Amino acid sequence: MSSAWIYLVRHGSVVAAETRRFIGHLDVPLSPSGEAEMERLATRLAGVPLVAVYASDLDRSRRSAEIIARPHRLTPQLLPELREMAMGRWEGLTADEINAREPDAFKDWMARVGEFPFPGGESVPDLLARVWPVFERIVSAHQGGRVAIVAHGGTNRVILCRALGVPLERLLAFGQDYGALSLLEWRGSRAILHLLNQPPPP
């Protein structure tokens, strides 16, 4: 039985990442350290026979995918469905700022991460409903091949939850650091996790 191998990548560090803001659909660029993270990961993956690279169309993911695709002479296929969760009016704010402005809503989010809808944005089930169909199409199109998907923390977490049968309220149990790699093997109807949140080489 042939398998589809999915190299699931979170984009590199972004400008102002140290402020830990809720970024969502804001189109922030990679920082110099994020570019370097992706260059190191690209070197690591240069020997993997990737046949396609897919990415969110947000700049931080698109640029990360370009760096990973370059050694393979591939052009990333940009899919808006792979964007990060839309965080509505909380985008651009830090957790402390949100808690100060909307303490009750922030407390509700903390208690119901897996189902809470961001004000004016999406919930985790909304994100999964957007992401999963395109992920299934990628897997179906590449049986017997290896592909990279370069996306976001939330996007990657809902893929991992659904693939591995983990409830959405547990999505934060999956680490997804900047520039990290996870590896899923899709064998028939069964997903096997080989790597989770492995950082780029030093």
Task: Provide structural commentary.
35% of the residues lie in helices and 19% in strands. It is α/β, with parallel strands linked by helices. A 6-stranded mixed beta sheet has the order 3-2-4-1-5-6. It has helices spanning 32-45, 59-69, 95-101, 103-111, 124-141, 153-164, and strands at 3-10, 50-55, 77-78, 146-151, 181-187, 190-198. It has 6 helices and 6 strands, in the order E-H-E-H-E-H-H-H-E-H-E-E. Helix 1 runs parallel beside helix 2, helix 3 (95-101) crosses helix 4 (103-111) and helix 5 (124-141) packs across helix 6 (153-164). It has a single domain (3-198), classed as Phosphoglycerate mutase-like (Rossmann fold, 3-Layer(aba) Sandwich). The protein is globular, with a radius of gyration of 16 Å. 37% of the residues are buried.
Q: Over the alpha carbons, how many angstroms does the gyration radius reach? A: 16 Å
Shape annotation = globular
Strand line-up in the sheet with most strands: 3-2-4-1-5-6
Name of the CATH superfamily:
Phosphoglycerate mutase-like
CATH topology value: Rossmann fold
As for the number of domains, it is 1
Task: Report the sheet with the most strands, covering strand number, pairing sense and barrel closure.
Answer: 6 strands, mixed
Helix and strand content put the structural class at alpha/beta
Q: Spans of 5+ residues with little confidence (pLDDT < 50)? A: none
Number of helices: 6
Q: What is the CATH C-level name?
A: Alpha Beta
CATH architecture: 3-Layer(aba) Sandwich
Report strand %: 15-25%
What is the count of β-strands? 6
The averaged pLDDT comes out at: 95
**Gap from first CA to last CA:** 35 Å
Overall helicity? 25-40%
**How would you spell out the order of helices and strands?**
EHEHEHHHEHEE
